[in-house]
From TrEMBL:
PROSITE patterns: ENDONUCLEASE_III_2. The keyword Hydrolase applies. Adenine glycosylase active on G-A mispairs. MutY also corrects error-prone DNA synthesis past GO lesions which are due to the oxidatively damaged form of guanine: 7,8-dihydro-8-oxoguanine (8-oxo-dGTP). Belongs to the Nth/MutY family. Binds 1 [4Fe-4S] cluster. Residues 50-199 form the HhH-GPD domain. Pfam families: EndIII_4Fe-2S (PF10576), HHH (PF00633), HhH-GPD (PF00730), NUDIX_4 (PF14815). Its cofactor is [4Fe-4S] cluster. This is Adenine DNA glycosylase. It comes from Sphingopyxis soli. Its EC number is 3.2.2.31.
Amino acid sequence: MSVQTSGSIDSFAARLLGWYDRSARALPWRIPPGSDAVPDPYRVWMAEIMLQQTTVAAVAGYFERFVARWPTVADLAAADDADVMAAWAGLGYYARARNLLACARAVARDHGGHFPDSEAGLRALPGVGDYTAAAVAAIAFGRPAVVIDANIERVIARHRLIEIPLPAAKRAIRAELAPLVPRGRPGDFAQALMDLGATICTPRAPACGLCPLMADCAARGRADIERLPVKPAKKAKPQRYGVAHWIERDDAIWLVRRPDKGMLGGMRALPGGAWTDVPPAESGIAQVDHGFTHFDLRLTLVARESEDAAGEGEWWPLSALDAAGLPTLYRKLTDKMRERIS
DNA sequence: CATCCGTGGTT
DNA sequence: TAACCAAGGAT
């Protein structure tokens, strides 16, 4: 079915959805176009939270494990914090995991175990911002919400040749996109734009020859299409340093939990001092370099006696270290130590 | 509006 | 290989 607009070119949405019907990626959380299956808002929400600033490839395994272990929002709401945080370990941006639990419990307690079916209702939940509220409203509930993620920003900025730098460009992008959203398939429309941005209208070397929207793309053929959308320059990342303590006793090591706020908040960790701008004097028994979003960290591992296992913490068997759910920074160190011990 | 918040893949 | 980037949200 093609929808005609002015001229002889099918409407933006018709071309996009036609392409999506042929080319949609098969993803664990996605109902294929044309299926009569009913979306599960819990699974849609779970996927959207995990996909925030995170690639499809990285999310797939986590999504499968989470929905297998906690099949419903009620199951997740009843889970132990430590189990959820450990299951999230390695995926990054750990505030998402804390908000995931807070959101599940809010849905269970305040909404009778059902996700709100409006954009405004969803937006009020922890960890749900403008993008996620619109995405869940459109994909799970068929609401004609205006969904804008980084893929869609890029597609629209190019198609309409919006040269305003982000994030200020978002207002213009929304104004251009809103009238294009079809009442009939808003969820597929949003997912189609994201698939298009991920596979054809890519940041570099876009495959314009394969694009269903090429005919009226304002950036088509421009040598500088990769410049769009215009983004602000990034600041240099400072180098920081830290010391972690390896405290071993009876084939177990001492682990602590980091405070909820700040880096790696709420996650199990090796004990250690605060991170600083100055390299430590000690040489240590191991060392890792780890890049965070806004600084690089060199972490030195220093052996300590079991008497230094003070305050809150737990002796964790070395044989079960995988189950501790350490974030990648510490996982790098424990992997090095495990190689050495075995 | 700017900053903070992870990680791994791609170029 | 260093830089860039990803289905952003909270503050």
